[in-house]
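ok new one. same drill as before - structure tokens go in, u give me an amino acid for every spot. 288 of them this time. try not to just spam alanines like last time pls lmao
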């Protein structure tokens, strides 16, 4: 079955190769976490907003399958979702809506358990339509689900970069390491960065990072890069309740400043040429 999926995707790649020639390819950044409740989607949404404000063409794919809520954080009511796309009811372009700041959002499908386990046909349809976005975007952000399910891992392995979100909580740290380990087992040269959320200060963020990096170095022979920290900031939960990204709601607060520093680093990487493209990498992943 997996080989059949890979063959089907490779066929799509070959069919679109001539059309794709000469077109640009967006870099793909997957935002993930080992467990829920660490602020992953909040970070992903605010990254998309800030990058768009800087003039980048950004697409945020809410691929937190089954529990998607990026549209809720942006106070948006989508007419279509990722579920409609993979079911064939809507083309991807009709599901895209403009988010605050000017980024494009592909809403996920909250509350649909079947979305958490895409089958061969659905995954193929999604990847085929995602291919068209690569030529019209600078950066595709993928807000994956938490954990290491096959669908989550597929997105992580296919991405150019993986941003793992954790907090100082012991369970979040343990699960963040589990995600990194799972990605590295499938892709030894994965570009992994670690962002420590909800810390008292930068020093605490560094301590958490160094703890995870030391374990990764010992058992995986690699050290994820330190993406930075986002401090505890009362304005963040307030912005969530108001359903408005905190970089817009409270642009001068510590959390917004830390987020902007991260975005400037990511923006430099967004200008670099990507590798093979998302569709081709997904085909390779399915062929494993």
């Amino acid at each position: 079955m997996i080989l059949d999926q890979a063959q089907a995707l490779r066929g799509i790649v070959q069919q679109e190769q001539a059309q794709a020639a000469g077109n640009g390819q967006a870099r793909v950044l997957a935002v993930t976490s080992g467990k829920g409740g660490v602020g992953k989607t909040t970070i992903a949404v605010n990254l998309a907003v800030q990058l768009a404000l800087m003039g980048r063409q950004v697409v945020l794919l809410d691929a937190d399958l089954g529990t998607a809520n990026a549209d809720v954080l942006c106070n948006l009511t989508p007419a279509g979702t990722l579920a409609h796309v993979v079911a064939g009811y809507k083309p991807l372009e009709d599901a895209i809506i403009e988010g605050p700041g000017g980024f494009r959002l592909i809403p996920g499908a909250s509350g649909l358990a079947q979305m958490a386990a895409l089958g061969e046909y659905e995954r193929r349809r999604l990847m085929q339509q995602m291919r068209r976005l690569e030529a019209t975007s600078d950066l595709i952000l993928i807000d994956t689900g938490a954990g290491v399910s096959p669908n989550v891992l597929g997105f992580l392995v296919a991405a150019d970069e993986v941003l793992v979100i954790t907090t100082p909580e012991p369970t979040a740290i343990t699960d963040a390491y589990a995600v990194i380990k799972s990605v590295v087992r499938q892709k030894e040269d994965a570009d992994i960065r670690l962002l420590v959320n909800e810390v008292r200060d930068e020093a605490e963020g560094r301590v958490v990072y160094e703890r995870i990096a030391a374990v990764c170095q010992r058992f995986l022979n690699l050290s994820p890069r330190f993406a930075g920290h986002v401090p505890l900031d009362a304005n963040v939960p307030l912005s969530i309740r108001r359903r408005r990204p905190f970089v817009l709601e409270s642009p001068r607060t510590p959390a917004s400043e830390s987020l902007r520093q991260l975005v400037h680093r990511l923006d430099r990487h967004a200008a670099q040429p990507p590798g093979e493209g998302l569709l081709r990498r997904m085909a390779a992943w399915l062929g494993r």
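Confidence is low (pLDDT under 50) at residues 16-22, 282-288. and btw The radius of gyration is 18 Å.
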